[in-house]
Here is the input.
Amino acid sequence: MEHSVKTVEHLAKVTAGLRKIPGSAISSAEAQGTLTFVFGIAPQGLTSFEFELAGKKLGETFRVEPGEEQWPDFFGHLWTLLPADAAIEEGGCFEVEVLDIQESDQREIIRAMADTARCEDHCCGH
Here is the structure.
């Protein structure tokens, strides 16, 4: 049984909505979708995206930009979970909304950790 969690915290199952910000350097393909993952399970620690997401509340909206970092590095192991139609290009930015935060069950945590461990250092092709 899943219980609602009020803020993004370690091992929470998070669903984030992603929307391109008009005028950013993202392709004209529809760059919207959702990303659902277990927060904070990578052996390398939190990704830059997870640092931005940490402590956010349900319904909170914020903007993410990689700065000097490339998008695959910014999202780390989560890069492969992004919607295929996001078509992120260098220099773009996204608005992120926390759509759902749930308590992860043990199977979800173990499955996510196994998937991440299998990736090693460069699971995302970067």
Q: What stands out?
A: The first strand starts at residue 12 and ends at 20.
